[in-house]
Design a protein that fits this description.
By secondary structure, this protein is an alpha/beta fold. The chain has 27 helices and 15 strands. The radius of gyration is 28 Å and the shape is globular. The relative contact order is 0.10.
Amino acid sequence: MNASNGKHIFLKLSILPSFKPEKYLLSLLSCLGFMILVVNPANATKEMEEAAINRDNIKTWIADRNNLQENLAPIDNSQPLLPLWRFERQESPLEQRNRIFEPILTTEDIQDMTREFQGLISRFESTLLTADAQESNIELSTSQVIEQSISQRAQGNKKSPQKLSKLINHNSHQVLQKAKTELVSFLGLVKQGRYTQAQTKWLETKRSLWDSYPIDRPVASSEVRAIWFDRGTIVKARSEADLIPTFDRMAKAGINTVFFETINSGYPIYPSRVAPQQNPLARGWDPLKAAVKLAKERDMELHAWVWTFAVVNQRHNEILNLPKEYPGPVLSRYPDWGTTDQEGNSFHHSSGKAFLDPANPGVRRYLSLLLEEIATNYDVDGIHLDYIRYPFQNSTGEYNYGYGKSSRYKFKQMTGIDPIELHVGGELWSQWTGFRLTQIDDFVAAVSQRLKAKHPDLILSTAVFPMPRQERLNTIQQHWEKWVREGSIDLLVPMTYAEDTEGLYQLTRPLFDSFIEEKALLLPGIRLLNIPDIVAVDQMQLLRGMSTEGFALFAAENLNLNLEKILSRTHNSLAPTTKPLPYRQPFLATASRYQSLQKEWNFFITSNQGEINDDDLKEWGKRADELARNLEKLAQKPSQKNLSLAQMSLSSFRRGFPRWIDDNQAVSDYQIDVWNNRLKTLERLLNYGEKRQFSQL
């Protein structure tokens, strides 16, 4: 079997094989008759491997060089790793047939590819605008920029200043323009049914945009950049000194908020007077104390991440060499505190976790004391509640949970019926669901009130599921809309984990339909595991273009060196001054975010002269500068009067903005949506600031 006999065509890649398939690429390669073999060069360095692993997700079949030496075409070690791989081939009979018989793309395939194509171009262009604007150093007010633009146009001078000309001639701009042309070509090829060529163009353009993504300059504004610091990373450390490298890397990456896993599977990571037992893997030192110190030294906030009702994990039992069915230190001491399914099983059938009964008074008291211990004994900046729910159930009733002794007793007292006798859809089932919802809601409200009475500056956040509301209420009894509406929490952190940016969008977009009370800030989650670094960056840019106040990365163990370097540049983490945290200084953050937004407008106006009516331009500039003054006044002198003035000014500006910008052909619909979303975020920040600053007076 060799590459020259016409029966097989080999694409030799020097790349690690641990990738998931990208269906369109595999479809294209298989229809062209390629057999993909991977050879890891003996001289491959860790950096080379990382460069490969952070590239396209290509499923390959690993070939051991020694075993297959005689069957392979000569190996050329000068062939580069991805992203610059190339190959030479001879035409095969299958390839000849494919000229006549094109592979079939379904309507859904075409729609998905088109949506991804358009979305990537839009985010690339928006990111490029932000990067160019931040680098342009235009220090004029919007009114001054507009007057200058109108004056230059009247004099027949449409040239941009030299620095702007340099920016807009950047290579990324050339790649962007080519991508827009290729999108038109792609749609034309699809219309003609030339699917192989369309797929090729789709892949090549996508790769070109990834290669030229604007990651060489700052693009971040005042935002929350959080990361979950996982137990696995913590226990690998044996001392404060061992934690230092991870904290240094997070600081270089621009992380400003750390969710430090403090309670996991019922075990505190610190020596506790409330919990029965410290995590055995952390005995002999206090990781929480060390983490607080290291975070403060790097101007990062540290929030204690707590597993709330999930109190046992069979996987953790295995790590500790304990029996799989071991109920953990809490339920071993208090067996009546647990909840079960209708068959009496404590452990969840798929997750392997056991939960506490939220209706049990002893459970509530224990958890409250545990949280109070953390907030009092450690200088943490916040508490981050995870597993603030019941175990997952299904709609058929095959698996249902919540049948702890206290829950059954209380519900029977209310209704005269033991809930274990109820069936999904039957009489009193909705009341049983409502009962469990109430247990979680009441706990969140009580914890919030108690903690903030003693620690008013403490930030309370929750990790939640982004499922549709009714499905979420029925299956895990997690009613986070109520927590937001009642002001019980400061940050909502939905676990919107997706392997591609379009998936993240589909998970995040519906949240805004429910997130209307604006008494909390929104931080969607990005899971770093198994996604290329550039996709992680693209997901951050998607969220920056939506109405969010930041994001949370899962998790510290997946923050690799390459991504750290990218984030250091895009977050400008080496700058001498740090931008205000939205949840800590909401009014200052509002003014700072608006300054970044105004800078984008100024750059856009300067580089797109003559695209907007003069009268609309002047009105835009007048209102923009007025809003800037009112936001700055509020930031410097917070008062109810200044807040009302800023809110009215923002509301007026938002009403007029569509009239000034919608007819402009130089700005895309996506960019208009981004600007509107950022204005919406300013409104939420003002409302949140009102709750934080004035409700405590």
